[in-house]
Amino acid sequence: MSEKLIIDEIENNKEEYIDFLSTLIKSDSINPPGNEKNVAIEIEKYLKEMNINCEIFPFGDNRANLIAYLHKDFEGRNLLFNGHMDVVPPGSEEDWKYPPLSAFIKRKKTMHGRGTTDMKGGLAAMVISLKILKKLGLEISGNLILNAVADEETGGLYGTHWCLENVLKPKSIKCDFAVIGEPSGINPLPKAIFLGEKGHLLLKIVTNGISCHSSVPFLGKNAIYMMSDIIQNLDKLEEYVPKVEPPMSESKMKELICSAFPSKEIFERIFNEQPLLKNVVISLTQFTKSLNMINGGIKENVIPDKCEAKIDFRLLPGQTPTEIIENVKKVIMEIGYDVKDEPKGNPEDVFVYIEPFNASEASYWKEWEKSNDVKDFYNVVERIYKKKPFYFLLPACADAHYYRNSGYCPATILFGPGSAETAHAINEYIEIEDFINSIKVYALFAYNFLK
Fold first, then answer.
1. Taking the chain, what is the end-to-end CA distance rounded to the nearest angstrom?
2. Residue 145 included in any domain
3. pLDDT score recorded for residue 89
4. 297 with 436, same domain?
């Protein structure tokens, strides 16, 4: 009966929920600079209609985190919903079919705008599920905690990490299970439930040479040639990076995906026809690196004294950003260049400067197969979406590692509305039916987990 009350409540208030998502999309929280407080204020306003405990923690220039919960008793089972309020820049608005902050609804089926998928759709659904449980006054013995965070798109130190170290732990708020509402659709597959994520390291490498007139090039030291030396030797990094077993083998991942298909034959055919899916599986079993940006030189007749490159590393559990940085330094020093921790030197100095940013470790919930809670979540997803989901790993990174690796809540999963390939993309959108279904999943699972 209680589950029917929840479903009926959602079915009868779809327009309210769509309007609330629209409000969040229209609230500018592009990071950088952030402005997440714009979104936090709207969430607080929405929850206060039901007298839900809500606290905003402001910082910086119009930035904030938010924590809300059903009641002030945290002694029973606690379920934590986490969603980030910031979104990536939209790029050139001229490239968008609909303005990125318009929340344009097309044929009552899709909502378009920056953050619809990543991840204001999931965040809004989590906020709404909290309101539903409060409004219906269902008898539960545990507590539902909502943590709406800043800064996820730039590493999460001022968001999830800050909330964990300054609010959740100091207030002795334990967590028995956590859901992060990142988009978990992987077309053409059903919904995924992510149990782990790769680590991430962005590294800026600056070569510092000596400039001179290009008619006498041997008087200087060409920083672009220096960078070329580094790039050509970058594969040597594989010799030094710690060899670790991936959290799941390729065969294990294929087995998990296959469970969502009517037969193994159909799965094998689709898997072999989908290079995207095949490459995602491969990427999840190995350490990867990609040189994505390079810039050097000031004029066509000047030997460049500086060249800058940015490299994206993706790490497996057991590989740390610190280890990668130290081994990159080792490779560069073996080439014959000095590595400095400061970007400045004398005009005659030849050196390389390394600056890490957006570093996060990989994480994985090792005990997931023994958990009845994740099985219950799986069953709710299957019931609402009318398709079997599948367990998988996230090839990108998210905030789950803060909960898992600190030991605060190893039982952390990622699940949310939206399809992963539209995240960060031009013309980002979300299917409204998917958004409504995610509200049902969050609310039903929360009720069953806490009752």
1. 13
2. yes
3. 97
4. no
Range of the domain at 409: 2-197+362-450
* Cα–Cα dist 123/125, whole Å: 5
The answer to whether 173 touches 320, Cβ cutoff 8 Å, is: no
CATH number, residue 123: 3.40.630.10
Task: Name the token pair of 322.
Answer: 């610190």
Q: How far apart are CA 266 and CA 446, in angstroms?
A: 34
Q: Which of 44, 86, 153, 399 is catalytic?
A: 86
Provide the token pair at 450. 């806490």
The predicted-structure confidence for 34-56, as pLDDT tens digits, reads as follows 999 999 999 999 999 999 999 99
- Ranges assigned E (strand) in 109-165: 110-112, 143-149
Q: How many residues does the chain have?
A: 451
One domain for residues 135 and 183: yes
Q: Any catalytic annotation for residue 86?
A: yes
Q: Where do we find the tokens 């079997």?
A: 388
Active-site annotation holder among 42, 152, 361, 399: 152
Nearest to 226 by CA among 328, 329, 298, 304: 304
Low-confidence ranges of the chain (pLDDT < 70): none
Q: Are residues 232 and 177 in the same domain?
A: no
Q: Rounded to an integer, what distance in angstroms lies between the CA atom of residue 72 and that of residue 50?
A: 15
In eight-state DSSP terms, residue 210 is B
**pLDDT given at position 70:** 95
Looking at residue 366, its pLDDT comes to 96
- pLDDT score at 167: 97
User: What is the rounded CA–CA span in Å between residue 379 and residue 359?
Assistant: 35
Please list, in sequence order, all residues whose beta carbon lies within 8 angstroms of the beta carbon of residue 45, skipping any fewer than 6 positions away.
none
Query: Among residues 125, 101, 97, which one has the least CA distance to residue 114?
Result: 101
Give backbone dihedrals phi and psi of 317, rounded to 5 degrees, phi first.
-55, 130
User: Is 382 a residue of the active site?
Assistant: no
